[in-house]
Amino acid sequence: MSETVAFGSVRTALGNILVGVTEAGVGWLAFGDGPEERERAEAAFRLPVVTDPARTGPVLAQIADYFAGRLTRFELPIDWRLTSRIQRQVLGTLFDGVGYGEVVTYGQLGTRSGAGVPAQGIGQVMGSNPIPLIVPCHRVVASNGLGGYSGGSGVEVKRWLLTLEGSIPATLDWDPERGP
């Protein structure tokens, strides 16, 4: 039998999250689940699409548990097929070495990964991460602030996730331009 990909989605505090899971593991995550996100995922994988709740269920359950505060580490097989060797090296270092509630700078992750990629290049790797949240690129920040984020509605999603994890304090009146 040829390889396939199964898609599933789960409702979270940040909206629906779509995942793509192959026989090897989770290889895609998108903040949103509409025709556009599914078309992009299908085009990226170029594999036959199947319905397989047994495959997607554990991934969706862990995402739900993360948002409910019951999960601090995703224990899922990862399918790295949509990444290059350098991306795998950097993202693998992030997945394995930067835990819940921790943050590292782009430069620190570049050094830790041993990939020889400068901070700006690490930012590009984070922006092209096909599995955000599970491979926690939201935990990588600029040396002078949060930096960018390509998931969901951008840096506000990053701030929300870091607040959930306790990396940054929750505030009632905080403007990134003015500070607290």
Automatic annotation (TrEMBL):
GO terms for biological process: DNA repair; methylation. Coiled coil: none annotated. The keyword Transferase applies. Keywords: DNA damage, DNA repair, Methyltransferase, Transferase. It catalyses: a 4-O-methyl-thymidine in DNA + L-cysteinyl-[protein] = a thymidine in DNA + S-methyl-L-cysteinyl-[protein]; a 6-O-methyl-2'-deoxyguanosine in DNA + L-cysteinyl-[protein] = S-methyl-L-cysteinyl-[protein] + a 2'-deoxyguanosine in DNA. Its EC number is 2.1.1.63. PROSITE patterns: MGMT. It is an enzyme of class 2 (transferase). InterPro entries: MethylDNA_cys_MeTrfase_AS, MethylDNA_cys_MeTrfase_DNA-bd, MethylDNA_cys_MeTrfase_DNAb, MGMT_N_sf, WH-like_DNA-bd_sf. GO terms for molecular function: methylated-DNA-[protein]-cysteine S-methyltransferase activity. Residues 87-166 form the Methylated-DNA-[protein]-cysteine S-methyltransferase DNA binding domain. The keyword DNA damage applies. Involved in the cellular defense against the biological effects of O6-methylguanine (O6-MeG) and O4-methylthymine (O4-MeT) in DNA. Repairs the methylated nucleobase in DNA by stoichiometrically transferring the methyl group to a cysteine residue in the enzyme. This is a suicide reaction: the enzyme is irreversibly inactivated. Belongs to the MGMT family. This is Methylated-DNA--protein-cysteine methyltransferase. It comes from Actinomadura namibiensis.
